[in-house]
Each structure stands twice: as C-alpha cells, then as structure tokens.
Amino acid sequence: HSTCAGRTELPEHVWGRSYPGFRQGVACPFCARSPVMNWSLELSPDELARVIRRGAAGDGTLPASLQGLRGTELLSLSIGRMGLEGRVAQLISRWRMPSGQVREWSFSGARLRDWIGPARFRSAAFSVAQAGFFRFEGRGNGHGVGLCQYGAKGMGEKGYSMVAILKHYYPDAVLRRLW
Asked: SS3 for 168?
C-alpha cells in the first residue's frame, strides 16, 4: 500500500488469515502529506447494487438467503462495525426483495473495496452517507498491511535509518544479515 492513513492493518482483517510476524498494527504519523491521503467516491444506488451483485457472484460470497439478488433494490448501506485499526470491519446492506420483503446482508469494507476496484475505492478506511446516491469519503490508499510507502518516505526524509524504518513497520520481525 502507498498510504496507510495513520495506522497499519493486520493481514487477517484484509485477507482472512494471519501471517507470521504480523501481531500488531502500528501508528504512522509519517504519511499525512501523501497526495492520496483523502479520497471520495459517489455511486448511484443502481451502480452500487450492480457492483455488489457482480462481486458477490464472482467470489461466491452471496449468502443463500439472498440468492436471486437480481430484481432487488439496494435500500441502504451503513457501517456496522469499525476495526481497531480504523478501517470498516463490517457493512450492513439492506435489500428489498421482489416479494417486498427486506433482507440484510453484511460484508467487510475490504470486500467492498475488492468489488469496486482499488483504483476507484482506495482503502477500507472510509465513511458512507446516503442522499439519493452513496457518498464514500476515505483516507489512505491500499490495504494497509505492512510498510506504508509514504510513511517510509517521510521517515527517511526525517533522517531515520533503513533499520529503524523496517523495525517501525515490522516490530515483530527479526532483522539479521543472511550473507
């Protein structure tokens, strides 16, 4: 990722499983001047519904209770839970079925980012508002796991050594010479 938006993320919150050496996210005050720190995106309800349908069909995550999402109307999308690192852990979507019944479906902010595409939906650190369209306002650029590129650049410009930068972003790693 290029810009962590102030705190790095754990891999299990993005990819669903943990990796050795990643036991904690770290604060990053060094990427604040990144040109991609803040972003926004507006989507119509129809466009967002199409993106969600296509994404869920493509990755097999559409729950059985919502099979036949075609012909449904996306009523709302709200943040259900934020993660410890400041990214959206759970979104709650409400759909009106062709029968008129309303059903809810939850998924992560990282999943929505994957479905919309990382070039348009830059990170899972965002808020969402609805006023005829869905407006997403976010911070950062990328998944947030590991080293923040703009943060590392900022640390280097402040005189931090390569070892200090790596130890900051990978505090659980053991740095040693292999040759």
From this structure: helix
